[in-house]
Amino acid sequence: MGFRDLLVYVDDSSQCRARLDIARSLAVDHGARLTGLAVAELMMVPEYVPMQAIEEQRRTARERNERLRETFESATAGEGITTEWRATDSIDSGANVLDVVALHARYSDLAIVGQIDPDDVRALVPQDLPGQLALISGRPVLALPYAWRPQPVGRRVMIAWNAGRESARAVADAMPLLERAEAVRVVAFTKSGGVHGHGDVPGADIAAHLARHGVKVESEHSVVPDIRVGEAMLSAAADYGADLLVMGAYGRARMREMILGGTTREIMRNMTLPVLVSH
């Protein structure tokens, strides 16, 4: 089992080159095809605006996408992997950046994007791009932090487990990485000492399932108040020395998550290591 199609979102952000390096490394490890995608978001203009202004926007978008194509090809050259370049703008596609990336992500096994840096004015995408992309694309998303020193991803993995549908989906989607990992720890997070939904020993059943797939896995149980789950997850990942966190996204109704914040949004804001999310 492995990834065969990878998609990497290419933009003007300062972290893009590191993202391309990780995407290239994953493509090499899995023998996967790597597709680079650039989407130029153009401003919607009133009908009375001269066509010349619209064409100027398109020209700027084409130049920007061509520059990003050169960056993508430079980062992936000489690795013996199959690559493809795709570029469009939001007007041509009739949708916003998120919708365009989600459409292309549906034809991949994994979409690789970056955490949004709030201080990077060039990152013209939604603040919760990774979480929203996982939600609407139906595919797993690997989000890379902007404040992070690049290193191999997937050697030491922590799974945040709550026995929910989204957690199960994330584990299944991450299996190509889990089977190759040197060590995996399942941490079952519960709001009390009870075991409702987890079996007699929280985390033990999913760990046994992974072990039957040949995953080198251990498990533990962590009791934390609901409001501090995100903080507890990142702390546990740091203590374990994880280079990847696997978790389900938006376990509650999406609107409630958007209003209350939720664990997904907290992790996406404060991540200190790469995070693979699925919905």
> How many DSSP helices?
11
In which range does the helix fraction lie?
40-55%
The biggest beta sheet, please? 10 strands, mixed
Q: What's the CATH class label of the largest domain? A: Alpha Beta
Number of strands: 10
Radius of gyration: 20 Å
Number of domains: 2
What portion of residues belong to β-strands?
15-25%
Q: What is the fold named in CATH at topology level of the largest domain?
A: Rossmann fold
Cα distance spanning the termini: 20 Å
At CATH level 2, the architecture of the largest domain is: 3-Layer(aba) Sandwich
Write structural notes for this entry.
This protein is α/β, with parallel strands linked by helices. The protein has 2 domains: 5-144, Rossmann fold (3-Layer(aba) Sandwich), CATH 3.40.50.620; 156-278, HUPs (Rossmann fold, 3-Layer(aba) Sandwich), CATH 3.40.50.620. The chain has 11 helices and 10 strands. The protein has a 10-stranded mixed beta sheet with strand order 3-2-1-4-5-10-9-6-7-8, with helices on both faces. The longest helix is centred in the N-terminal third of the chain and has 26 residues, at 51-76. The protein is globular and about 70 Å long.
List keywords for this structure.
Rossmann fold, ten-stranded mixed sheet, 279 residues, 41% helix, alpha/beta
